[in-house]
Amino acid sequence: MAVLPGGIRAAARRRGPLDGEGRWALLFLAPTLVGLAILSAGPILATLAISLTSWDLLQAPSLVGIDNFVALASDDRFLKALRNTFFYTATSVPIGLVIALGLALALNQTIRGIAWIRTAYFLPVVTSTIAVALVWQWILSPDAGLLNQALGVLGIAPRKWLVEPTLIMPSIVAMSIWQGLGTNVIIFLAGLQAIPTELIDAASVDGAARWARFRHVVLPLLTPSIFFTGVLSLIASFQVFDQIFVLQRPRPTSASITVVYFIYENGFKFFRMGYASAASWVLFLIVAFFTWLYFRGQARWVHYQ
Amino acid sequence: MSVLTPAVAPPTTLSPWPRRWRTVRRAVFIGLLVAGGILMTVPFLWMISTSLKTRAEVFAVPTVLLPAIPRFENYSEMWNALPFAAFFVNSVKLAVLNTLGTLLSCSMAAYAFAVLRFPFRGPLFALLLVTLIIPFQVVLIPNFILYRWLPHPFSESGNWIGTHEPLWVGAFLGGAFGTFLLRQFFLSIPRELADAARVDGANPWQIYRLIYLPLATPALATLAIFTFMWSWNDFINPIIYLRDVNSFTLTAGLSLFQGQYVGKWPLLMAGALVSVIPMIILFVVAQRHFVRGIAMTGIKG
Description:
The complex is a heterodimer of chains A (305) and B (301).
Chain A: H1 6-14, H2 21-38, H3 41-51, E1 53-54, E2 62-63, H4 67-73, H5 76-107, H6 114-126, H7 129-139, H8 146-153, H9 165-193, H10 197-205, H11 210-237, H12 242-247, H13 259-269, H14 273-301
Antiparallel strand pairs in A: 1-2
Helix pairs in contact in A: 3-14, 5-9, 5-11, 5-13, 6-9, 9-11, 11-14, 13-14
Chain B: H1 19-51, H2 55-58, H3 73-81, H4 84-115, H5 121-133, H6 140-149, H7 176-187, H8 191-199, H9 204-215, H10 217-233, H11 236-241, H12 250-260, H13 265-285, H14 287-300
Helix pairs in contact in B: 1-13, 3-13, 4-7, 4-10, 4-12, 8-9, 10-14, 12-13
């Protein structure tokens, strides 16, 4: 069944776009097309339209032009949300990638029990951020939290990790790196295992030192994986919300609010749909810009075989 | 290769170093890995230990690592403090519906993109990929307004707000990630199979149903597990759309619980543990699918 004589196969192919194949495609794509129109692609334009209005959902929306965007530019809470989100991205993404890369290199060997160690690293990934944040809130709690207790043994004074403005974001970054490590490690492991052994053997025969082999053979071949995990982490980092919600109850201060929390707060607490939509569009433009920048820069350092 | 480690021939055993050095290096490596593994597990162990402690043990200084007598009553107290049984049922229901919807709608779209020929196939697929990059929070407000406008026969508000529907109906309307994942897999299935079936008179639906779906079982399993996990762990959507406590999912319920039981760490940890156990079981059972799924998207990306 698998192999047809060439003539028949060619004949089957020559029929080209079959009568009705387009109609079949429409049938198969119908759910996706509806979804694109009303849930994903279409609403992006809707967000833009709503952002030009003032709308509390009770009264009819009134057109206000770019007033919402102008107000955002001088809204201190929004600017702080931007700053905190950038801080989160600029720290959690690179640090997370470097640690994951080191771990993947270490985990890429056959040791008895390696599966258990891998499981340990991957456990936080499958756990909801809500549960994770609850546990970390307890570990970081100022009175009897595990971290302060452990630091106390070393003679370090206790800190209020989730209250002191300079410590909140670093604490949340640390927790998020811990939680996301497993995903990146697995992508790197897959990338490492796809590197042809001959290449490394050849470098070994040439007498390349360990570091040189890593720097000039392994690392270049791993750049597609690094690029991909980078994109995933970058996009996800701009969406940070769950951690902030749980760890900064009842309401994050200017030291910890993020852009998505700002959208949530304005849209679903204050019902300022126009204002929240304007913030959404700013988020969209930021993510689009950085993703574009990232893709544009890839030619310089990503090597595809 | 070394006599000491005859079974080992992994790609990274690159070193031409003396044997003794390799043994030392290996020991250090393993030590670091195990230490790191323990560090990764500490929050979980701490969650379990705390969930079985008394209030006095929780706040004891110096820290008590393990409770003297495990206090299992914490679990029944937690379970009865809020309708956790209902949260559980809701989470399962939504995860199952999301998984079914995603598998069905994404596999259909993926089949069209991978096998069928039709006008605008390229641009349409590109549009889908663009939505993969867009953070879904960007469309949160129009989606909320849409669901607030759609009539619902059984809801108090008369629209979809306060019902479970906004949390799963969208899954039946495709998804960029699943479609992309399955399309890549479908492309690796030899076209000759479809061509042969077509010559035998099968229509595209039969080819999809009888050839592509069965052959794609591994990819479908991977997508199913990921979708289940995402639905189970989703937080922002439940807190936006759900109103009545009895309709809450575990994540939303846990957050409510946190607000009401401030400082009652044993109960909070018991609740957190109960909410994550199903995912941990799923992960342990289907670990290979998890790893393959992440690796697959990683390489093809």
